[in-house]
Amino acid sequence: MDTNAKILIVDDDTVVAASVKAVLGRREYDITVTNDALEAVEFLHQRRFDLAILDVMMPVMNGFQIMESVNDLDLDTIFIIMTGDITMDSAIKAIRKGASDYIRKPFDAEEMMIRVENAIRHKRSKDEKRLIQSEKNQLELQLRQSQKMEAIGTLAGGMAHDFNNTLGIIIGNTELALRTTPRESQARQFLNNIITASARAEEMVSRLLSFSRVSDAVKKPVDLISSIEESLRLMRSSLPSNIEIKRDFTVSQVAVMGDQTQLNQVMVNLCTNASHAMNGSGGVIEVGIKIKDFDSDVCADLGDLPQGRYVEITVSDTGHGISDEIIKRVFDPYFTTKELGKGTGMGLAVVHGIIKNHGGSIRVQSIVGEGTLFTIYMPVIDAILDCEPADDTECIQGGKENILLVDDEFMIADTMKIMMEQLGYRVSAFTESSRAIEVFEENPDAFDLVITDMTMPKMTGDILAAKIQELKADTPVIICTGFNNRVEPESLKNRGIFEILTKPVRTTTLAKAIKKVLDARKKERRVDDRFAIKEDIFVVSASKPEKKHSMIDISLSGMSFKYYSIKNQVVENGKYSIMTSDRRFVLDDIPCKTVSDIVLNHSRDLTDVTVRRRGIKFKDLTPTQYESLGYFLVNYTRSVANAC
């Protein structure tokens, strides 16, 4: 039996009240006794009782009135009415008033105990049902939240693709303008500001994509001074001209472990709030930075922070200030004093969450009519900060190769084409996947690389890449995407996709990716001297030994052979053997890797037949195979062939 139940006994007759307590005392319940009806009401309002045993007839207030006063507060106390005048009418009245049971005076001790135990079991059952319902409501809320996050994630993906396309146009054209703008021109500063702001927008889109899934911020050593200076410089153009920004930095460099984008967001939110507090009347926003060493007592006052060195960041304004009632809630989500449509009340809640997530603390002080001061404390770290070059557009390496570019957005295709042409590449740009395939099919050997958008109508980038590989197996492909939700990195190489670039694509990123892919393809080609074949030598596939293919040349690292393909159906991969004209296998079951497969010409004698040239690279030859290869080079080749 539940002996933890809290029971209130109310009877103006002290003898009866004491008798009830004595009977119930056998179970060691937590019992409170009062002989005053008003005091009983006060007890019920202040404390939560599982059961109240009420005498009906009492001065000032009877038992029914006590129940009515408590039920109005929606308390979950169970009531038992105790009376000497119990009739059917009075019993029905007691039940209708909210009583769980009744006891007749003078009461029987055993009956009293049974009715109390039943009432407490009833109370516990109600509590359990209420808990189950609460858990059910919570699960339903979590389900709705999960569905909401899923919907937001889907929406975010579409928004990210469109927004990244727009950012790509902005960044691409700005970089092109930078390359043609003299270094001494003041316009370079404005163009660099566009690049910086676009980079922040790019990171915000990334945050939007991760909003529907739980993920930690990517933290690394950050130069806080540079980060804050950058934020203030960008904020300057958006703040009214009658607001002055002052700086009070006592250090020139300080490192913190943080996420650059989130730290910028903190400064932007605080400065925006400060601007709104001035109501267009102008004033001063002052940002200060100091280094402080805190002992354990100070750290405890700041929210149990670890003892150590901290950077103190202050953001103050000369606005209208915040009242004592409101200042207690400024960090609450969705709390705002702004008019409808002027704000959601999430700004300071986000700031508070970011600072807490970075192991810091934030405080706010304000005087109505004088202004507000936000103070942030973040732990300082010892770190060597990387200094990125401000402008590396002059150091980009290009090439002379031919590139096929596909993007359904005309402005993106045009911008990327100009970017690559300025790097020296020859570029054929298309906005329709089908047209690009047609041009490639006409002359697959004309292109060294294919760069395609991922999300396009009629044919997506990964499908286009597969068709390119069908036409020419060794053609490298780079995919650009504003929202990568189709291509898994693990399967890239097998499908001929060497790189995935996330939009917006910078000139430097694009140049490095192109160089990386083209250099990798060059390394895969054979570098050893190639020897021409002395007489009829054939290459035979292990899977189809009845088909013989004419060998073209061979080296210590690989070989090439010519074969006929019907309707562009290329020969299968697998192990190959080298057979002489007398049908003797000089090298057998050679493990290899295909590195090229190109069209040489179309046969004049047979319809839909194409002559192709396949280049293969030897892999993991055995000592016996190496010995046979040396024998073959001495006896069956005649001279060094020119590299193809």
Task: Characterise the protein shown here.
The protein is of the alpha/beta class and 644 residues long. It contains 16 helices and 26 strands. Strands 18, 19, 20, 21, 22, 23, 24, 25 and 26 form a nine-stranded antiparallel beta sheet that branches. A hairpin with a 3-residue loop joins strand 20 and strand 21. The radius of gyration is 40 Å and the shape is elongated. Residues 211-216, 340-345 and 388-394 have low confidence and may be disordered.
Distance between the termini: 93 Å
- Poorly predicted parts: 211-216, 340-345, 388-394
Mean residue pLDDT: 79
Largest sheet: 9 strands, antiparallel
> What general form does the structure show?
elongated
Q: Decide which structural class fits the backbone.
A: alpha/beta
Q: If you compute it from the alpha carbons, what radius of gyration comes out, rounded to the nearest whole angstrom?
A: 40 Å
Helical stretch tally: 16
Q: Into which percentage range does the β-strand content fall?
A: 25-35%
Number of β-strand runs: 26
